[in-house]
Design goal:
alpha/beta, seven-stranded mixed β-sheet, six-stranded mixed β-sheet, globular, binds nicotinamide-adenine-dinucleotide
């Protein structure tokens, strides 16, 4: 291994410690800026997967009996450690993903810590219902864990995805086996270390590495009670089909092609900021991105001009350089997918206003840097308007009337996110109500505080992460009817 190094102590984390099994196929984490390996890990063998699942199962029942405030205290401690180790985690996240360090320092471990804090407090304050029925009977509910949760992650927000699944799982008394994306195996292991240091009993948070087959093995295991996946729609469909065989609970956080609607009366500078945040953060590799930007006639010229000015000023570079605003695509494959969509946009007759070119960065010649692209003159049925690209490609679409843009915004199989920029708040609320999306913003985009539920409508997902809404997806209710009078039987 040369240059940067982020080699973990071992590939997997099971029962509160690092575990290796060199029988598993080796795969590398490459620093996307240079293509150089920063770590090598082994894919989990069947034995490792079974060991992790057994470890989770064995630890879960005692954890379920642990009072909520004690569970919460451990999550709060984990948040504190995550914040202390923030800069180190940010560096590893940047090496693993190629995202600019100016993002990972402020978003990834920070979001993980926020999540631990939120669910730590929630664990301490969970109550259930008392249901009065009549003078001699009442009922109450118990909120019980589901058991063993299998978490499967995507590569764009590795520690965030792991934490968004771990925090509610653990707060509610479940145990977790988490499989990070094979592209980004590293920071879930750091999270596991952090949980142990925070006092989490062994076996409650396990990490196993591997490709889709390891994920599939987790999903089909009889030990697993619930599956929570962040990934693409096709993977979501496979996971749900497999989970259906044994009727497991599922949470699916999937892809999108979200609309962002800019009305004439929007604050110009804020609307441009919103469109940039909706498209170019993390080199465009964000599930909730508002890649279909509908701009009303009256503001179109000024908006487009300012958008191009600010887009062309975005600084691409080595992600470890604090001045870099945009890093490379995570992989050659992802860069090829994006380049393929840009070529398709051109052959289908769209106008490329700026960007979309391969850029060479000094010292990072092997990195797949693509300048942020803005297309205009698009038809709604163009491929790049319909399909998720997962790269820095914004589609500008024109509109005149409110009703028309709502119908066009909703004309998609996805429903993850949506946004509206306007100074007319009555219109903002009216339009948001009609947009078919699970996570929406008025006069902002892509902000996801932990206290706000996150998830998709339509094919973008099932279930919710974050906020109190997650409780329903990581626990189950038991109703208890209590009779204090005589039993009324007709026999
Ligand atoms: P992906 O679907 O290729 O892989 C996601 C994970 O699923 C990986 O860990 C992979 O190994 C695993 N996997 C693959 N096949 C599997 C199978 N048959 N059974 C079980 N697991 C399997 O997605 P990706 O390329 O890693 O991530 C990009 C996608 O994720 C995009 O579509 C993006 O929109 C989506 N995403 C969604 C959210 C969200 O919260 N909604 C967040 C981030 C990314």
């Amino acid at each position: 291994m040369t240059g940067e190094n982020a080699q973990p102590k071992a590939s997997h984390y099971i029962g509160g410690q690092y575990v290796e099994d060199t029988d598993g196929k080796v795969f590398e984490s490459l620093y996307p800026a240079t293509g150089q390996p920063v770590a090598r890990v082994h894919s989990a063998t069947d034995a490792i997967v079974e060991k992790a699942l057994a470890s989770a199962r064995d630890a879960q029942s005692a954890w379920a009996e642990t009072p909520g405030f004690e569970r919460g205290r451990i999550l709060l401690k984990a948040a504190e450690i995550l914040r202390k180790r923030n800069d180190e985690i940010a560096r590893v996240e940047t090496l693993d993903t190629g995202k600019a360090i100016q993002e990972t320092l402020y978003v990834d471990a920070v979001s993980a810590a926020d999540n631990m804090e939120y669910f730590g407090h929630l664990a301490a304050t969970l109550t259930s219902e008392h249901i009065p029925l009549n003078p001699t009977s009442f009922a109450y509910t118990l909120r019980e864990p589901l058991g063993v949760v299998a978490g499967i992650g995507a590569w764009n927000y590795p520690i965030q995805v792991a934490s968004w699944k771990a925090a509610p799982s653990l707060a509610l008394g479940n145990a977790l086996v988490f499989k990070p994306s094979e592209m980004t195996p590293l920071t879930a292991l750091i999270l596991a270390e952090v949980m142990t240091e925070a006092g989490l009993p062994d076996g409650l948070f396990n990490v196993v590495q591997g490709m889709g087959d390891v994920g599939a093995q987790l999903v089909s295991s009889p030990i697993v009670d619930k599956v929570t996946l962040t990934g693409s729609v096709p993977t979501g469909a496979k996971v749900m089909a497999s989970a259906a065989e044994s009727l497991k609970h599922v949470t699916l956080e999937l892809g999108g092609k979200s609309p962002l609607i800019i009305f004439d009366d929007a604050d110009l500078e804020n609307a441009v900021s919103g469109a940039l945040m909706a498209n170019f953060y993390s080199s465009g590799q964000v599930c909730s991105n508002g890649t279909r930007v509908f701009v009303q006639d009256g503001i179109r010229e000024a908006f487009t001009q300012r958008l191009i000015e600010r887009t062309t000023a975005i600084k691409l570079g080595d992600p470890l350089d604090p001045d870099t605003q945009m890093g490379p695509m995570i992989s050659k494959r992802q860069a090829e997918i994006v380049a393929g969509y840009i070529a398709k946009g051109l052959t289908e007759g769209a106008t490329l206003l700026t960007g979309g070119e391969r850029q060479t960065v000094s010292g990072c010649e092997a990195g797949e840097f693509i300048t942020p692209a803005i297309f205009s003159a698009l038809r709604d049925d163009a491929t790049i308007v319909r399909e998720e690209i997962f790269g820095p490609v914004m589609c500008l679409l024109e509109f005149s009337a409110e009703e028309d843009v709502i119908a066009r915004a909703n004309d998609t199989e996805f429903g993850l996110a949506a946004g509206v920029f306007t100074r007319d708040l009555a219109r903002a609320h009216r339009v948001i109500t009609k947009l078919q999306a699970g996570t929406t913003w008025i006069n902002n985009f892509n902000v996801t505080p932990v206290g706000v539920p996150f998830g998709g409508h339509k094919r973008s997902g099932i279930g919710r992460e974050n906020a109190e809404a997650a409780v329903a997806y990581y626990s189950q209710i038991k109703s208890v009817y209590v009779e204090m009078g005589d039993v009324d039987a007709p026999y």
